[in-house]
Specification:
PH-domain like, 9 strands, elongated, two-stranded antiparallel sheet, alpha+beta, 7-stranded antiparallel β-sheet, 297 residues
């Protein structure tokens, strides 16, 4: 009723009962939900009729997952709720696992790209992995070249040498092997590929005598030629290639430069032609980091 009628005797228009109008009690504001109770007490409101298309039901599950991970953690209670919701939506539990996995990979992708572009995994990259795993309740196992990436960082940032490896090669006294990889040794060679130019022959009117103008020039180019296939070993004092047809040994002090390609390592020496060893980019990057550290020590 209007506030002007408060404090008067009134008659109810519905039941004709007389009553005294008193001011209503002010309602207490509802307490704001605690950030820690996010999603725990608010159950998802499902429509009475679920969407027919599976993609729309997956979107409902994805939306609820996004609400539950805003606190940075998907705990056991959240997992139970998501599992129950998945069943209610007529989806398989494996689809919930795939959804969590895809969300994890999407957030981890910037870190992965940074690791692959630098070919090393820093402490910050490794630390960035844990909160994303906790957020989506997954356990990620990094395989492939992850061990090489971590070793490259420790060598270049912390000056830590890797553990020695065993090799069948006969090494010198106090010489230690640190890395070995199967590869193919290549060097550049100049090859002739046809000729270029033009030549014109003009008769002189004298039998058997003609004038010739112009000429041909051989076309030469450099090509990478495989020399041998074998084992490349990096030791504390040199790099050794033990091949099936040829072998080579280069002291670390004679190596002046190196370059990493997508499929090979280029080693530039102070004399002679550069050597190319075909391998993965991560292995080539590891060898250059190892040579740099060994030369400093």
């Amino acid at each position: 009723m209007p506030a002007s009628m408060v404090g008067q005797n009134l008659i109810c228009p519905h039941c004709s009962s007389e009553f005294f109008a008193t001011p209503s009690k002010p309602q207490e504001p509802a307490a704001a939900p605690s950030p820690l109770s996010k999603g725990k007490q608010q159950q998802p409101r499902l429509p009475q009729k679920l969407p027919f298309f599976k993609s729309n039901r997956k979107k409902m599950l994805e939306q609820r997952l996004g609400e539950l991970v805003t606190d940075g953690e998907l705990d056991q209670r959240d997992h139970q709720e998501l599992t129950s919701l998945t069943t209610h939506l007529g989806l398989d539990v494996s689809e919930l696992s795939e959804l969590r996995k895809s969300k994890f990979l999407k957030e981890f992708d910037p870190v992965r790209q940074r690791i692959e572009s630098t070919l090393m995994m820093s402490d910050e990259d490794e630390a960035a992995l844990f909160p994303i795993q906790k957020k989506y309740g997954v356990t990620a196992t990094l395989t492939g070249d992850n061990d090489l990436f971590r070793a490259i960082y420790r060598m270049e940032a912390k000056g830590e040498l890797p553990q020695p490896v065993q090799t069948k090669l006969m090494l010198k006294a106090r010489e230690t092997a640190y890395f070995c990889v199967h590869t193919t040794w290549h060097q550049t060679r100049v090859r002739t590929r046809g000729y270029s130019g033009a030549s014109v022959s003009i008769p002189t009117g004298i039998k058997g005598v003609r004038f010739r103008f112009g000429g041909y020039t051989p076309m030469r180019c450099e090509e990478l030629i495989p020399l041998a296939t074998g084992l490349l070993v990096v030791t504390s004092s040199r790099i050794i290639f033990n091949g099936d047809a040829r072998s080579s040994s280069v002291p670390l002090g004679k190596i002046v430069d190196g370059h990493v390609f997508a499929d090979s390592l280029k080693v530039q020496k102070d004399t002679g032609k550069p050597d190319y060893f075909f391998m993965r980019a991560a292995e080539a990057r590891y060898i250059l980091a190892l040579i740099g550290l060994l030369r400093e020590t």
